[in-house]
């Protein structure tokens, strides 16, 4: 039999391997968001296709993390914070995978947008929203590795900015649609892209909550108010 | 020490408890979809609010399933199909929870739709799509409990119908928007609802794939072609 200290060390080593994969996955997803920004602003369709293709690698790493995590639980039967750390890795990876999926959808829709005139500065607004989310992803992974609960909470609060930009862009896009029927198809795709970025922010928030939970054993006690108001948006034509 | 047969029985009993919870959760989600149909067709805002509120119970059961499943893995260290069965329960519960979330969003948007004129027969089309998904959820859970791989595959194939209805409704809604600017706000919400139902179908497909995998140890070998074409939809005004 191993002694207590030995078991702990072996566990830590296995956990580190998993967390390294989560960080690597996070780096890929950050790059995907960066590419989404580039695709939105330049309409570079080759980059859009490369972005779509990069999704496979992200999916593969998520699966590997899941398998290693389950093996680790079955093998070492971790308790309390150790168990939470393994479960956090699974959930963080799942959220990162979803964020990657949304960037893929942006790439797809760019093929339609490239055939239409730009709608005001909406592509730039979306690029700004993406940049906020990219920084949130970077910071929340730093919080994850450093076990920094304050940074995780701070990232979680920052999602409000993304929600507010989405709310404003939503209304603006509806008015563009009302002004000119030719704007309807591109605006519809921009509405969905904006909603995608809002969801990317939500998944980053969910990572922040996982990090908070795994460090402290408790979820953040303030229920974050849902700042996405687009489900109840009502705009009337002039 | 327990003998092999004893361990197996104890595991089976624990697994049954978890699977009972998954089925109970499935029943609640079926009811949520049923309510979404009712809300879409009658615009009953009280029912919409009750539907929104029912989400908490679904979330709670998902969390309970997750906790029991992790405890079971740590305690009994299941291998091969037994391990896959426990992991399937976690993933099926996660998909069911997402399906429930989408019905909640339908309830939210109904508050706006109730202030606007109906857009052709689109509410009925969405109700029909919801009914297809509800039957898929019912059948895939039957396949899950009966370990019936053929039924799981059959449910998975059925998602095409949902995708096709979504594609058609998408184009129809865009033309309604183009015809009359007053239609834009309600059509936008209907576009998002239709997309939500399409995603509900995707999550049901994902459950079918989990069931296939957990029974056979392999994912279905045909990659299901993505039949949602709305990300590339282009409609021009007359």
TrEMBL record, chains A, B:
Question: Subunit info?
Answer: Homodimer.
Return the similarity comment. Answer: Belongs to the PhoU family.
Q: Name one Pfam family in it.
A: PhoU
NCBIfam families reported in the protein's UniProt record: phoU_full
Location comes to: Cytoplasm
Q: Which UniProt keywords apply?
A: Cytoplasm, Phosphate transport, Transport
Q: Does the keyword Cytoplasm apply?
A: yes
Q: Specify the superkingdom.
A: Bacteria
Q: Which positions fall inside the PhoU domain?
A: 25-110, 126-211
In Swiss-Prot or TrEMBL terms, this protein is called Phosphate-specific transport system accessory protein PhoU
Its biological purpose: Plays a role in the regulation of phosphate uptake.
List the source organism.
Pseudahrensia aquimaris
């Amino acid at each position: 039999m191993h002694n207590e200290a030995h078991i702990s060390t072996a566990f830590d080593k296995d956990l580190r391997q998993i967390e390294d994969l989560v960080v690597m996955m996070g780096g890929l997803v950050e790059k995907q968001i960066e590419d989404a920004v580039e695709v939105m602003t330049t309409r570079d369709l080759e980059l859009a296709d490369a972005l779509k293709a990069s999704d496979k690698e992200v999916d593969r790493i998520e699966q590997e993390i899941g398998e290693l995590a389950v093996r680790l639980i079955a093998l070492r039967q971790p308790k309390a914070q150790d168990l939470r750390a393994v479960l956090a890795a699974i959930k963080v990876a799942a959220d990162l995978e979803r964020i990657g999926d949304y960037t893929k959808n942006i790439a797809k829709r760019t093929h339609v947008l490239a055939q239409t005139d730009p709608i005001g500065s909406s592509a730039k607004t979306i690029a700004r929203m993406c940049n906020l989310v990219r920084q949130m992803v970077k910071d929340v992974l730093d919080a994850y590795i450093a076990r920094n609960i304050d940074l995780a909470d701070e990232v979680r609060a920052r999602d409000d900015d993304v929600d507010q930009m989405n709310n404003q862009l939503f209304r603006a896009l509806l008015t563009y649609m009302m002004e000119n029927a030719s704007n309807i198809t591109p605006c519809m795709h921009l509405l969905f892209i904006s909603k995608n970025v809002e969801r990317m922010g939500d998944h980053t928030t969910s990572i922040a909550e996982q990090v908070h939970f795994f460090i402290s054993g408790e979820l953040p006690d303030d229920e974050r108010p849902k700042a996405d108001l687009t489900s109840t948006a009502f705009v009337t034509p002039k």
